[in-house]
Amino acid sequence: MYLYKATCPDIPNPKQKTSRSQGGGQGGVQAQGPGQGRLARQTSVGTGAQPYNPVMLWTANKSNGVTAIKQLEEFLNFHSLSLHEAVRCQTGMLYRNLGKSGLRVSCLGLGTWVTFGGQIADEVAEQLMTIAYESGVNLFDTAEVYAGGRAEVILGNIIKKKCWRRSSLVITTKLYWGGKAETERGLSRKHIIEGETFRRAQIRILSLTTNPKHLLRVSGLKGSLQRMQMEYVDVVFANRPDSNTPMEEIVRAMTYVINQGMAMYWGTSRWTAMEIMEAYSVARQFNLIPPVCEQAEYHLFQREKVEVQLPELYHKIGVGAMTWSPLACGIITGKYENGIPESSRASMKSYQWLREKIVSEEGRKQQAKLKELNHIAEKLSCTLPQLAVAWCLRNEGVSSVLLGTSNPEQLTENLGAIQVLPKMTSHVVSEIDHILGNRPYGKKDYRS
Q: What is the pLDDT of residues 306-331, one digit of tens each?
């Protein structure tokens, strides 16, 4: 089976057989069909070398990894490209498909919740994005509600300033909470699509203001695009389910924004498996576009949904997992072991719930478990946060883990989890499960 059908006359037809040239003894391949002559002349005349046949690259035996790499290098060199110039080779970053879609995302992404437009200055945000991008991260996540819309503004300004190619980035945003009015929230067709057209000068004025009322005077996907100064996002997420809106209306609206070029894919966030399945069924019933991904909380103390529910959805309908809060809002870093630091997230007025969680009986038990996990981290020559992030990545059902950091040192440390991932053997994972004592059991675990 061939991976493509040749349509250009300069590419040899893979269905036509080739034969060795009977004369010259140079091992050249004689063109057997129309359109093959020029390729053969370009690669063999005057050199005595065997002409390059791109089909041979893909039909070759891939069991030998060294041979496959050499063939790939030959293919790239033929087209004036270099394997060593690829981002993955330069940074060591790993890339995975988002669910069963063809979108390739870095296994570590950068989130903007709490930090951009709130906890950190714009200059620090630029440093974080620069470190992430230069480390091979291509996934950047935000939402219309983050910092009253300012997170989207900062994200867009930094990308414009850095002149990064839009095609090299995967930008995602989330919709639900857009404003105070009843029609400015939820997943109605009106809110998902709505927005006004601003001139570029107006967008610049909008980006300079710090008043959330001005930043959120336009809600919906068009409003997000205007704040980020972009023509499209790669993935738009429904930030939570909406019981007031029929599922068909939600799916039709998401299909519309994709067909209009405002988004490439759509996904869900904090939806139940049943709700995701309903969206998929509606999409298939009316020939619409189904979601490709679910954003879910996933860390050492929160495992049920990602390890039991989402794998079944992935195998049945191809929905992947993009996880957030791998350090449980900073709890797993160990910084709350001796109290709550003033500069921490738990010290913020709007995160009273996090403070209560930390000082609770359950929170003290978690701190005790973290001390035991720290011994495993020491054995692996890594930090506890790196161990926690690598533990999330060891789950093959996770397409990407979103990191949320407030300074460059934290981000650099967390990105180092890529180096810890090969050390996450089954023995290490079993040790961690034994300490946590919270391993969820799926359907197959109950079968005997």
A: 999 999 999 999 999 999 999 998 88
